[in-house]
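Why this split exists: single-chain examples teach little about how molecules sit against one another. For that reason, every record in the complexes split bundles all components of an assembly together and asks for one structure covering all of them. Below is a record exactly as it appears in the raw files.
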Amino acid sequence: DGGITQSPKYLFRKEGQNVTLSCEQNLNHDAMYWYRQDPGQGLRLIYYSQIVNDFQKGDIAEGYSVSREKKESFPLTVTSAQKNPTAFYLCASRAGVSSYNEQFFGPGTRLTVL
Amino acid sequence: GENVEQHPSTLSVQEGDSAVIKCTYSDSASNYFPWYKQELGKRPQLIIDIRSNVGEKKDQRIAVTLNKTAKHFSLHITETQPEDSAVYFCAASGAGANNLFFGTGTRLTVIP
């Protein structure tokens, strides 16, 4: 399945709690991404990382945080500051250097705030 | 930064007919244009892509055309089948930018 895994598949959170979504890849890709997808909507970039120990904010970074301590892992934390976190979260990775490289997506995590 | 617009947002066709989805981009430096298909509840998957040095690319029933001058590219699906029903996203990526900029998606429904 493309070598990218996300866990859990479904996640339920109470308001005020932080939760962390896992993303792991064994493709040896340099770049990793987090997207948020709301029902019937497109893909909005939350954070991305092009190299270990470095990451940049995307279009909707407020209320989220990430880390990139290892090349194969890029966890996303949804903090209590995120006002409307219920959504489908997709992780992706891409080999670096060339803009022609295919971007692969993980299977997604569906987060629901109760 | 790059801005990608996609039309239409929804498209219904009869089985066997053709479907066309169009995208425009703003950054003339963009040089890679992939198309992704996302079935309900699943991950987006690459179905075809085109580089800026090529005007057209075909893979069986799907084809993509690129007009660099006008900064637009299109996805063409011929002889549509019910299993083509999904959301399709276009994207653009530029030299020096490792990000893909996505369109807002087109929900294609193929009516049997």
